[in-house]
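Appendix B. Raw example, untouched.
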Amino acid sequence: MRDPYQPAFSKYMLLFGMLIGVAFTSIALAASEGSGVPVSSAEAAATGMNGEQVYNNVCVACHYPPGVGGAPALGDAEAWAPRIAQGMGTLIDHALNGFSGSTGVMPKKGERLDLSDEEIIEAIEYMVEQVDH
């Protein structure tokens, strides 16, 4: 026999779940705005990320000190110097289109093809700015 209260209970639980989801999303957005804290892919697609946010969400996987697979670590002037010497155009080209060389591999857009070229360029600029010249 069916429970006559089941449909009402299901509707209230669905509404309660949606309210919880909205509350958590609002809290996460408020916490991440301007803080350098990683944001979700959905948030990134909706709002765009600055260079520091892209670094914290994507680039950090390989460029966090000490660096992985030949990737120059954030702030490591010795590792970045030969790359910076090639010019920003080369750094941008390698990051946007991918690169494989004797020092390692740079996947196209860090394997985050959902990011815009501008977001990737800002991340490169952010990482280069962290190098003590």
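End of appendix B.
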